[in-house]
Amino acid sequence: MARFNVGDEVIVVAGSGQAASWLYEDKRGVVQAVHEGQPYPNDVQLRNGGALCFTDDELMLAMEPNPGRRLLNETKGLALGIDTYKAQEVMKAALTTSSTNPTHRPAVEHPAHYTNHPSGIECIEITKHMNFPLGNAIKYIWRAGLKGDPVEDLRKAIRYVEIEIERTEGGSK
Questions:
Q1: Is the dihedral of CA 135, 138, 143, 144 positive or negative?
Q2: What is the CA 80 to chain-centroid distance, rounded?
Q3: How many CB atoms neighbour CB 79 within 10 A?
Q4: Which of 50, 89, 105, 113 pairs as cysteine with 146 (C-beta 3.0–4.6 A)?
């Protein structure tokens, strides 16, 4: 049974070992056709043009717009003209390591206090779409009670929300 239907709006998520999904991660598109029984059954027309086929594991339904992406779009990205997409690609390439690399450390790259959410989503998959204060606020809420003092983590989250409020109010004056 197909996981996606023709007409579903989807977001590409990085599939394990799938180069295409890594290259098109976070891109949105619409399912144009579903070819059951095929290795890449979902024919997706991407918003930025082009079409590719993806596995079910490389896609997720686009239930609602990403609030972090919406904020970036509304604020026209980060200050000083930084291309956020290019910055994310550079950071991703810098952080990508192979299992044969002696510096490969799961405790550093995927700490348990950020990967234990019941949804299976790692905290950074959410926060990488946000600016620094909002991302840190979510990070500290996410890990509260899992690393160190939970009250301290929640106070840190409040502080980062206050920083974002100050930044937002400062920009609207």
A1: positive
A2: 23
A3: 9
A4: 113
